[in-house]
Design goal:
2 domains, transmembrane helix, mainly alpha, disordered N terminus, 70% helix, DUF418 domain-containing protein, globular
């Protein structure tokens, strides 16, 4: 069977040269779901329960513990991993096409920092500005061997663990050198935004992109199965060890808390990544998870949209509900409803356009040229020998002369 386009070109149905890594889009969409739940539920379910445990706050306490244990810090690690993976794919594409990369990518990071700075005006916990700075590390290590990339990623992660043991002296040193406001700002960037973890995940994502671990294949399936079991074992071992050593009781902070939470976050992040990949490889579940793909394709736009949704919800609560702590049912319902709206909007947009709105602006400014945005649907026909179209993907019919010319060419072939 042949395909007829308006240009008369023949294409094979199974051509997948331009196929995206669908698993990566789904993973990015999944990470944005987790980021949304953390940012949306944390102010209402966690902070409002601190020191106020009573019969009416049992539900909030359960939600707060679930968010802190299973979500906080985990999804940003996945988001960071995929940023490094994206760098690897862009570098490979530029090398294959012979296009310049380093200068353009640095300019791309400058634009990302500007977007993050603007986003921070409405959402203080923006992560994009940090990505713009740490992204320079990827440029520096882009030519390193795979072994050195793994060593660098592990070293950065271990550096973060070591830094957690010297927070107080490091804070004092930063304040002494840079002054009170700047010193505390730097400490917040390192601790709150997990600078070492972000850098480690960037480099690890670059390594995984080189190894093509997200391409479908028997070796990669075995790899993710091993990661799944190893991450699950590490997480269970950390939880048991933490409580058996008596570090989880008394409500007091311990010197090992920072290292424990960092290891727990990494183990759960790896568990989530391997689990999603394993589930997506099953055809039935792949269809069930496909709705996350459009969210991942326009990840930056959805990330900023989430901030606008949170601002809108906070304004609506203050304006119409007039309560400091809304009921848990309202919060959970609003979280589900608003994310469902994001998913519907993302699907509608990606069916009509090639990039998300912010992604399109970012790409256009990167190349200093307006990039095509709207998808072009080719008028394609399946033809039989009698020139009757069996199936069409066209919005308009192909002219009769074009059909006859294609039929003549098919007979001659």
């Amino acid at each position: 069977m042949r395909l007829l386009t308006l240009s008369g070109a023949t294409k094979h149905v199974g051509n997948t040269l331009s196929k995206r890594l669908e698993e990566v889009d789904v993973l990015r969409g999944f990470s944005l779901l987790g980021i949304w739940l953390v940012h949306f539920l944390l102010p209402y379910a966690v902070q409002n329960t601190a020191g106020h445990v009573h019969a009416h706050s049992t539900g909030k306490l359960a939600v707060g513990l679930g968010v802190e244990m299973l979500m906080v810090g985990k999804f940003f690690s996945i988001f960071s991993l995929l940023f490094g993976l994206g760098f690897s794919l862009q570098l490979r594409s530029a090398s294959a096409k012979g296009h310049p990369f380093v200068g353009r990518y640095i300019w791309r990071l400058v634009l990302l920092g500007a977007i993050g700075g603007l986003h921070r005006l409405i959402f203080e916990s923006d992560i994009l500005h940090l990505y713009a700075v740490v992204g320079l590390l990827l440029v520096l290590v882009r030519r390193w061997g795979n072994a050195w990339l793994l060593f660098t990623s592990a070293s950065l992660f271990m550096g973060g663990l070591c830094f957690s043991f010297c927070v107080a002296p490091a804070t004092a040193l930063f304040i002494r050198v840079a002054g009170e406001p700047t010193g505390r700002f730097l400490m917040d960037e390192i601790l709150v935004y997990r600078l070492f973890t972000v850098a480690a995940m960037f480099v690890l994502g670059l390594y995984l992109g080189r190894k093509n671990v997200f391409s479908d294949g028997p070796a990669n399936r075995v790899f993710f199965k091993r990661v799944l079991f190893a991450a699950a074992g590490l997480f269970v071992g950390l939880k048991l060890g933490y409580y058996l050593l008596g570090l989880g009781g008394g409500g007091q902070a311990h010197p090992y808390d920072g290292a424990y939470f960092a290891l727990k976050n990494i183990s759960l992040s790896a568990l989530y990544v391997a689990g999603i990949v394993q589930l997506y490889q099953r055809p039935l579940l792949r269809k069930k998870m496909a709705w996350l793909g459009p969210i991942g394709q326009m990840g930056m736009s959805v990330y900023v949209l989430q901030s606008l949704c949170m601002v809108f919800f906070a304004w609506a609560i203050e304006r119409y509900v007039e309560v400091a702590a809304p009921q848990l049912a309202w919060v959970l319902g609003a979280a589900a409803l608003l994310f469902a709206g994001q998913a519907v909007a993302a699907r509608w947009w990606m069916q009509r356009f090639r990039y998300g709105p912010l992604e399109w602006a970012w790409r256009s400014l990167t190349y200093l040229k307006r990039q095509p945005l709207r998808r072009v649907r080719a008028r394609v026909y399946y033809l039989r020998k009698d020139f009757v179209p069996v199936r069409t993907f066209a919005l308009r019919t192909v002219p009769l002369q074009a059909r006859r010319r294609a039929g003549t060419g098919a007979k001659q072939a």
